[in-house]
Each structure stands twice: as C-alpha cells, then as structure tokens.
Amino acid sequence: MGKLTIALMLGALAAALMNMLVLGSNAEVQRQRLNSCLGKERLTRLRFYLQDLVGGENKTVWRVAQCNLTDVLPSEFGTVSVLDNLVTTGPEIDSQEVGRMQGLIGLADLHEMALAMLLNIVFTEGEYKGSTLSILGRNNLYDEIREVPIVGGTGAFRMARGYVITRTYSTDETHFRSVYEYDLVIFHMDEDNDVTRLNSD
C-alpha cells in the first residue's frame, strides 16, 4: 500500500472522527437547551376512586358493540363499551369530585376477563382542574392488583408518563355499582418550566 493511500486513509479517518465530535457536541448542546426549557421532571402521586355504574337510571358505562363470540365465551370477548365515570377523593359516591374518567374499554382476551383500556382522566376540580391524563393498556380483571401504563397528559401533566395500580374496592350488584381504587405514580414536566410560557415571555 502506497504512502499516498495511507495518508488519504488517515485523513479520512481524522475527518470522520472530527465529524463525530462535532455531532456529539451539537447533540449535547441541544440536550442542554432542551433541559433548560423543560427543567427537572416532577413526581406526583395521586389516589382517587372510580365510581363505575353499569346499570340503573344513572349508568355511566354503555355497551356499544360485541361480536359473535361475546355471548359464547366466559371472557365476553369482543365487548366494547364507552364510559364517563365519576372520579372522587373517597370511595363513597357522594365524596368530593376530582374529575371524570372517559374513554373506551374492550374485552380483548379469548380466555380471561381482560380489558384493553383507552381512557382519559379529565380533572374538573381542585389543583389540577383543566388537566388530563391518558391511560392505555391491559387490565386483567381476574387479578387482585392490576397495573396499567400512563402514556401522556395535558396541562399540569404535560409529557406525563408513569403507571396506575388499581384494585376493586367494592362491588354492589344490587345497585349495579363497583368502586375501583386508583393509585397513580406520574412523572411530568414541571409547570414552572413550561416551554410555552417561556416562549411567550
């Protein structure tokens, strides 16, 4: 291999290394700029209770679709429902309102009573009024303790991620009512470093 070829190869290698350093430096600058806008994440823990009314005059869960297997399988596979449930600070239905849980649920397991959940928690009262959290995941109703992901949010919960631990608190078949306890662990953007507010200053 000639000296000229070796020199060209070394030059190309040096240029590639320099390019990598520049790109890495730019990426670090961008990361620092993003962090300066977003600030540190905030961790919020919440507990509330979901009032689930599947019958009666004031029912809040409505079946909108099913498939040919729904009435055949014990898992009620194919059932799709929409809901607009009251969310409260305590398990009693007359507890202080926190918000509403709205969205779609479908029984999507051929063998178990397991929900595929697409839900929004809309905060209507209190510190987080006007904010929302989005839940998307699987909820196996046979499990005593269930875990479902939090995948997003708005308002105070912009860029939210986290999880929900839920369990059945009580069931009243006479009044078609179940109460579910929800414990939420949420990582989200600190409102004091809201990028939209920073850009408007």
UniProtKB/TrEMBL annotation:
Q: Which InterPro entries match?
A: Allene_oxi_cyc_Dirigent, Dirigent
Keyword vocabulary terms for this entry? Apoplast, Secreted, Signal
Query: Does the keyword field hold ATP-binding?
Result: no
> By its UniProt entry, which PANTHER family does this protein fall under?
NUCLEOPORIN-RELATED
Q: What is the lineage of its organism?
A: Eukaryota, Viridiplantae, Streptophyta, Embryophyta, Tracheophyta
User: Know the name of this protein?
Assistant: Dirigent protein
- Oxidoreductase as a keyword? no
Q: Name one GO cellular component term.
A: apoplast
